[in-house]
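The methods section describes the discrete structure representation at length, but only in general terms. What matters is that the chain and its backbone geometry are given together, residue for residue. For illustration, here is how one protein appears when written out as sequence plus structure tokens:
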Amino acid sequence: MATAYANRGAARSGKRQHDLAIADLNQAIRLAPAVAVLREPGHAYAGRGDARQAVADYSAAIQIDPTNASFYRSRAAAYRLLGDEASADDDDQAARERSH
């Protein structure tokens, strides 16, 4: 069941139906907090302009899997939306270190 919510949420995010995507993705996380799902709500929050919540979601994903470079790259982009270049640069560096 979690996979169905995650798939529908990702599809809705791609269609820019951000609020519906967030609801589906959060339900998927409640049912089965898989690392692959955790980054998707961040994308939806960033898409609707809520960079602070996107940072929080990417940070949660990083806590679960600190070796995943894409989580750091995504959070760096959200930090840039907030105008926090120092944190974005730190995350870009962390992503480079994990990409090797």
Remarks:
- Residues 2 and 28 are 4 Å apart (CA to CA).
- DSSP finds six helices and no strands in the chain.
- The domain at 2-98 is CATH 1.25.40.10 (Serine Threonine Protein Phosphatase 5, Tetratricopeptide repeat).
- The two ends are 35 Å apart (CA to CA).
